């Protein structure tokens, strides 16, 4: 990647890194952490679904595996938080490879692949809800031990920077996908798998590498989530909420673009908080307004917010270049 490719990432990260030090309240810092974790999960989904065209409804399987491994290794086996987080990312990657190998070897794609991933996430949720090692229905509670070694910070601004560092790495991975030969092969498989095979692209290997990278990023989001909120149960770890959030962020922001998931997460979470504030104490109104706005975005900006006219030509040029590289 050239300096020109890195400059937007550096600028975005610089602005976000400055926000916590502008006197934000505790609730706004919580909002920022949650939004960045969802953006990280969205960046993970975007690698497989956006660049690879393999839509998943069950990224909770990777998020929950990363979160549970991070929590169980600390609570049950006394691991260091950094080591537990690294192991969680590794477990999420292995789960992604296993699901990908079983699905792609069977030739599943489209809605069939989406439903299989959803089924895996549900199976994991049921198992986690009954197993002793995961705390069963009661869940797991991490000890409050503020300190760098335990990845807990008395000042929440430093946790924002930690999550932002992971988001930065995911953004760099996405920018690399936009420019690399592997990314070109991934887009070629997305556009026409049979044609890509005919041109010598190993579609199975490309998709397995994509789902491994996607699962690793999403598992990191799960590990950071439990490390911040210090509690985890099966509904949080493997619930459909995170699969939906990870899916919607890139769709609203701009599917198949490096910055789309981050833009989408900021827009959706910001809109959610705004509607809650405007709706006051009326239950459910905020969700109705949120859903209406979401439908409007999808209906009038099918390529997401970054697919609007000022950004469209750049993306079309990038896809054309990637198609040429894949050929």
In short:
This protein is an all-alpha fold and 327 residues long. The chain has helices spanning 3-18, 26-51, 60-75, 81-105, 111-130, 156-179, 181-191, 193-198, 203-229, 234-237, 240-253, 260-279, 285-300, 309-326; strands at 140-141, 231-232.
Write the layout of secondary structure elements.
Blueprint: H1 3-18, H2 26-51, H3 60-75, H4 81-105, H5 111-130, E1 140-141, H6 156-179, H7 181-191, H8 193-198, H9 203-229, E2 231-232, H10 234-237, H11 240-253, H12 260-279, H13 285-300, H14 309-326
Antiparallel strand pairs: 1-2
Helix pairs in contact: 1-6, 2-6, 2-9, 2-11, 2-12, 3-4, 3-5, 3-9, 4-9, 6-7, 6-9, 7-9, 7-14, 11-12, 12-13
Keywords summarizing the entry:
about 325 residues; transmembrane; Branched-chain amino acid ABC transporter permease; ABC transporter involved in vitamin B12 uptake, BtuC; membrane; transmembrane helix; mainly alpha; branched-chain amino acid transmembrane transporter activity; about 0% strand; 14 helices
């Amino acid at each position: 990647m050239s300096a020109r490719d890195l400059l937007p990432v550096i600028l975005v990260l610089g602005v976000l890194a400055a926000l916590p030090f502008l006197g934000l309240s505790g609730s706004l810092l919580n909002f920022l952490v949650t939004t960045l974790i969802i953006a990280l999960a969205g960046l993970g989904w975007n690698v497989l679904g956006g660049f690879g065209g393999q839509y998943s409804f069950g990224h909770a399987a990777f998020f929950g595996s990363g979160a549970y491994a991070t929590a169980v290794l600390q609570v049950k086996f006394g691991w260091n938080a950094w080591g537990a987080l690294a192991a969680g990312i590794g477990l999420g990657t292995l789960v992604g490879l296993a699901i990908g190998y079983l699905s792609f070897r069977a030739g599943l794609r489209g809605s069939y692949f989406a439903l299989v991933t959803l089924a895996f996430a549900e199976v994991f949720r049921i198992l986690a809800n009954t197993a002793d090692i995961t705390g069963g229905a009661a869940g797991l509670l991490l000890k409050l031990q503020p300190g760098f070694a335990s990845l807990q910070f008395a000042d929440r601004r430093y946790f924002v920077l930690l999550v932002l560092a992971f988001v930065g790495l995911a953004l760099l991975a996405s920018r690399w996908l936009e420019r690399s030969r592997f990314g070109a092969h991934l887009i070629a498989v997305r556009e026409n798998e049979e044609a890509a095979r005919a041109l010598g692209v190993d579609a199975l290997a490309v998709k397995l590498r994509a789902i491994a990278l996607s699962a690793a990023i999403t598992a990191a989001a799960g590990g950071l989530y439990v490390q911040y909120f210090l509690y985890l149960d099966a509904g949080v770890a493997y619930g459909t909420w995170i699969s939906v959030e990870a899916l919607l962020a890139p769709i609203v922001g701009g599917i198949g673009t490096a910055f789309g998931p981050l833009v989408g997460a900021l827009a959706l979470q910001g809109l959610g908080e705004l509607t809650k504030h405007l709706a006051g104490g009326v239950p459910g109104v905020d969700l109705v307004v949120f859903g209406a706005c979401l439908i409007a975005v999808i209906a009038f900006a099918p390529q997401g917010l970054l697919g609007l006219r000022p950004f469209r030509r750049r993306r079309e040029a990038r896809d054309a270049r990637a198609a040429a590289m894949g050929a």
